[in-house]
DNA sequence: GACAAAATCAAACAGTTGTTTTAAACATAC
DNA sequence: GTATGTTTAAAACAACTGTTTGATTTTGTC
C-alpha cells in the first residue's frame, strides 16, 4: 500500500530545505541494504538485519521506502548511478581516441573496477543476483549499466573490421570482447578454484587487460586487413 | 537430524531389489526440485511447491532426503552427472583430434548444449545461482563440471601457441575462450535485452560457435607462428 | 488371508518473515 | 510555553517457512 513515504517523495519542493534527519537514515539504510542484498541476495536478505546494521528501527525501511522491493530498487539505482559516473568519466576522455584505443580503454577501465572502488564487489554481486533471478529492475541494470559500454565497443569494433554496425560479425565480436571481461567479473568463485594462484591485484589485472586487448585485436585486425585489400 | 532416510541409504545391498515406490517419488522430487530451484533459487524455493509439482506430500522431502539442503545437493549432483556424461561423450571422440579440432569441438559442444538437451536451462540456472551465492556444493560444481573442459582446452591451447601448460599466456588464453562461451550461457538475460534479434536457434548457435573459434584461433595461431620462427 | 515394514498423508509446531500499529520523542513555528 | 508535523521506538500481526508427529494407507512376505 502507498502510505507515509509518498508524502516525502511527492514534496521535494525545495531541494535540501526540509530534508532533516530522514535523509540521514535513508542513506544509512541504502548503504546497509547494499551490503546485505549483495551478500545474501534479495530474498534471503532480511529487513531486520538491514536495520540492525544501519542502526535503525525495524519499521524504518517501511517508513522510508514503503516496502522491501522499493528499497531494493533504490539500492540498485544508487549502484547503477555510481557505475555510470565511472563509465562517463572514462568516456569523456576516449571520445577522441582511436578505435583501438577505445577498446583498450574500455577493457582496462572495466577490469580495474574490480580491485579499486570504495566497495569492491557490491555492484557486481547485486548484478549477478539480477542475472540469476531477474526482477523488474533488470531492464534498468542493462540499459544504464551495460548498453553504453556495449555500444561504444560496437562502434570501435565496426571501425576496425570495416563492417556495418549491425553486421553479425560486428555483434559477435563485441560479445566475444564483453564475454572475456565478464568472465573475470562474474566467474571469480570458479576462477578462485580453477586458478588459485591468480590473484586479481592491480598489476595482475593490468596484464589481464593487455591480454584481452591483444587476444581480441588479433582477430579484429586480421578481418580488417582482409577487408581493406580483399 | 538424521532419521528414516539413513535407513534407505545404508542398505543398498541388492541394487534394485527392494527399491519399490520410494525410487519413484525420489525421482519425481528431484525432477520437480530441479525446476523450482532453478527458477526461484535455493532460498526462495519452497518445499511445499516442490512437493506440489511432484504430486507428493509436504513431508516427502524430509522423509526421502532428510532436509532441504540434502535435496539441493542431490539435485546438483544429478545435474552434474548429466553434464559430465555429455562432456565425456564428446571427450571420447576428440582425443584423436588436432589441438585446433579439440578447441572447435569443445566450443561447439558447449554452445549446442544450450538449445538441445531435455531440460534446456536447468543446469545453467542452478550453476548461476551457485555463482552468485556459493554453497558448500560449489566445489563439486567446479571440479566435476568445469575443470575437465578447462584442462582439455588448456592442453590444446598450449600445443598451438607453443608455450608451457602453466605459462601465463596459456592460462589467460583459456580464460578468454571459456569467457566467450560462458557469456552465451550466463548472460542470456542481458543478451535478450541488448540483442533481442539474436535467437539461440541451433543454426545460429552453429554460427556463434564458428565465430568464437575463428576469433580465438586468430590470436593463438599468430602467437604460435611467432614462436616457431622468432 | 495376516502381519510387519515402508510409504503417504493431514495436521500441527516452532521459528522467521515483511508489514502495521500505536505511542512516544523530536523538531519547528508561533 | 503550546501546537503541529515529522521521525523513531517497541510491540504485535498475519502469513509463510522447514520440519515433525502420529495416524493411515500401501506394499511385500509368509
Report on this structure.
- Two copies of one chain form a homodimer.
- By secondary structure, chain A is mainly alpha-helical.
- The first copy, chain A, has two domains: 60 residues, Orthogonal Bundle (Arc Repressor Mutant, subunit A), CATH 1.10.10; 148 residues, Tetracycline Repressor, domain 2.
- The first copy, chain A, contains eleven helices and no strands.
- In chain A, α5 packs across α7.
- The N and C termini of chain A lie far apart (65 Å).
- The N terminus of chain A is likely disordered.
- Chain B binds a DNA duplex (30 and 30 nucleotides) through α1 and α4.
Query: Spans of chain A with pLDDT under 50 lasting ≥5 residues?
Result: 1-18
Query: Can you tell me the CATH class of the largest domain in chain A?
Result: Mainly Alpha
Number of strands of chain A: 0
Count of runs of 4 or more consecutive helical residues of chain A: 11
Question: Could you please say which CATH topology of the largest domain in chain A applies here?
Answer: Tetracycline Repressor, domain 2
Largest sheet of chain A: none
